[in-house]
Amino acid sequence: GHANIGVVGLAVMGSNLARNLASREGNTVAVLNRSRSKTDELVGAHPEAGFVPAFSYEDFAGSLQRPRTAIIMVKAGGATDAVIEELIRVFEPGDIIVDGGNALFTDTIRREKAVRETGINFVGMGVSGGEEGALNGPSLMPGGSDESWTTLGPILRSIAAVAEGEPCVTHVGHDGAGHFVKMVHNGIEYADMQLIAEAYDLIRRGTGKSPAEIADVFAEWNRGELESYLIEITAEVLRQVDAETGRPLVDVIVDQAGAKGTGAWTVQTALSLGVPVSGIAEATFARSLSSHPEQREVSRALPGPSAESAAQALQVDDVDAFIEKIRLALYASKIVAYSQGFDEIRAGAAEYGWHIDLGRIAAIWRGGCIIRAQFLNRITEAYAATPELPVLLTAPYFVDALTRAQAAWRDVVAISARAGIPAPAFSSSLAYYDGLRAERLPAALIQGQRDFFGAHTYKRIDKAGTFHTLWSGDRTEIEAEDTH
Ligand code: NDP
């Protein structure tokens, strides 16, 4: 065999990744798809790529140099297991199987363990950037063993997006670490999108500006500290006019947000790890709320502020000042969302024994992926200064930004509540922030309640030990065994 890399699964992602690989000096790419037609189509359409087509797993294995390296890009779930089973049959110890699909990290942990028994290496790799990224440079988040990274590293570096001269790929950590980080990336993406949507809604309802005028606001924001792909495309979407009706496209689109489930995975995982990713959770729930038209229909008559009191709450006499407040609230809430996401990665790494360089993760998200942004450099710098930083938003740069945003952020949350405009991500981010900085939390009362109904015990601020009050007896306190 003379191909140095192979791709299995030639739908849009796999064929674009295969073309990207083939376009790099020194690569010869073997390609295989379950149904022959996709292989014929790809090879026929791109003679310049010099693909080595295979029509069976035996052919495929035979066309690859040792150690054989194959990237799977098939439908996540059972299809991935089916392809792995076939590859194990024809590969040998030392070969490398990479799953580039959107797998749940616990599936990746399971697969890595099972494949390792055969002596073959298995790498779960997060791929971000959609079809465009796959073709021109994705952000790549491979997990797996150090041994596989030695072989894979140079190949992946050659096809990844480049940000400020650096390829957007790093060996994230062992087994499922890459897919875990990709999952959290998607969760942060949900939060970022929801925050932008809330900002748009407040500006629109607060100032009466048209979508095209708000597009200009976002384009302007994109020249400052909010500069990012998501802000940039928001301006594009808002500027779009529907050809059929002549109305802004955003007014013609049904207001029910879809989801493929990675936001939910991020939240479910955070719940198990006990990490409060409230911004990501609110963003995920906001999509769910939007997608229940029957519930929204029956709720439309519920009371809320009158048009007059809403207008009064908004008090937008200085439109520019109002927009600047929203920009600051958006920036502050965004800092919270990223801080929460990195907290989840930190907790996941601790739980699963991964050594994840958080600063590197921010760096490889600067290119190729949906959440690419200037802002990520600040995260890399924060972790470079303090690698063990327990809360990202306590880094000096972010403290400075949060200080500047304080008054505006609180104002925006208060205004939205008084005007009856939902801003779940803005408000939950602020509540998280105030919770973190609180001297005392009412968690003390919750411990009292838990002790009352379940004898769950509590600790005291003034002495060591575990205590229980005899609530149904004479209400004296006893020292309890520390078992709850
Ligand atoms: P799809 O998810 O639509 O999957 C189609 C491919 O899977 C086809 O090649 C199909 O083969 C193959 N397949 C399906 N079932 C089987 C099976 N049982 N055995 C073998 N092959 C099977 O393709 P996409 O290109 O959209 O996505 C590929 C992967 O990349 C997915 O895991 C997806 O989640 C992920 N993805 C990532 C994105 C990103 O931004 N990172 C964006 C989009 C996708 P056949 O032609 O024979 O039907």
Your description of this structure?
With 484 residues, the protein is an alpha/beta fold. Helix content is 56%, strand content 9%. The protein is built from 21 helices and 11 strands. The strands form 3 sheets. The protein has a 7-stranded mixed sheet, sandwiched between helices. Strand 10 (466-469) and strand 11 (477-480) form a beta hairpin. Helix 8 (177-207) packs across helix 12, helix 16 (319-352) crosses helix 20 and helix 17 packs antiparallel against helix 18. It is globular. The chain binds NADPH dihydro-nicotinamide-adenine-dinucleotide phosphate.
Q: Any key phrases for this structure?
A:
NADP binding, alpha/beta, 6PGDH_NADP-bd, two-stranded antiparallel ribbon, oxidoreductase, 484 residues, binds NADPH dihydro-nicotinamide-adenine-dinucleotide phosphate, Pgluconate_DH
Main β-sheet description: 7 strands, mixed
- In one word, what is the shape? globular
Going across the biggest sheet, name each strand in turn.
3-2-1-4-5-6-7
Measure the end-to-end span: 61 Å
Low-confidence stretches: none
Computed structural class: alpha/beta
- Bound ligands, named by name, code or SMILES: NADPH dihydro-nicotinamide-adenine-dinucleotide phosphate
| Total number of beta strands | 11
Compact summary:
Keywords: Gluconate utilization, NADP, Oxidoreductase, Pentose shunt. The chain has 484 residues and is of the alpha/beta class.
Helices and strands, with pairings:
Layout: E1 5-8, H1 12-22, E2 29-32, H2 36-45, E3 52-53, H3 57-62, E4 69-72, H4 78-90, E5 96-99, H5 105-116, E6 121-128, H6 130-136, E7 139-142, H7 146-159, E8 162-163, E9 166-167, H8 177-207, H9 211-221, H10 229-239, H11 249-252, H12 262-273, H13 278-290, H14 293-299, H15 307-314, H16 319-352, H17 358-364, H18 376-385, H19 396-419, H20 424-437, H21 443-454, E10 466-469, E11 477-480
Parallel strand pairs: 1-2, 1-4, 2-3, 4-5, 5-6
Antiparallel strand pairs: 6-7, 8-9, 10-11
Bound molecules: NADPH dihydro-nicotinamide-adenine-dinucleotide phosphate.
